[in-house]
Amino acid sequence: MYNYNSSGLGVLSRLPPEIIQSILFVLVAQRPLGTPSALVPLFTTSKDIHAIATSPALLARVFRFKFDAGAVARRHFRPTHADLKEQLVHACTLLRKLRSGNVFDRDAHATLFSALVLLFENDGKNYAQLEWAGVKEFAEEFMKRRMWEDAGHTNEGWPLDNTANASALWILWLTLTKGMFSCCYCRLPC
Asked: Of the chain's two ends, which shows fewer C-beta atoms within 10 Å, N or C?
């Protein structure tokens, strides 16, 4: 029978927090795309492990691993660990909303705009995350189902000029590939 200490985690809880953070980072790094869901079960294990798993230092490192942080630095701003932790939470929420595919969500306009901002700040990682989450499919579905809302009588039949419609169009433009353009939009043979 294994002898657990007071926190219930045995040997792990006796390691220095920096070592535990390194172990948790390696655990998250096993799955580069998507949210750091490997950390979620650790949030309820003990107060000490929860504090380590949600520490700004670890989550800032996870953000830099999964998303692009270079655009912020190019604007001569040095984000703190707390800033990057907050951005990770925001980006992971965005990925979950995109994966849900719910274009009728009351925050769909904010989802599209946030995805567009990540695309504008893309150095490679953001695009990979958004592609994994289905950003193009989300934008296409939004265009099919919601772009023409209130367009009939209020705007002479044209889609309204609003953030959601503009974001959806920009996302589709920024995710367009040469193959998609020639096959889908120009009706040219592939």
From this structure: N
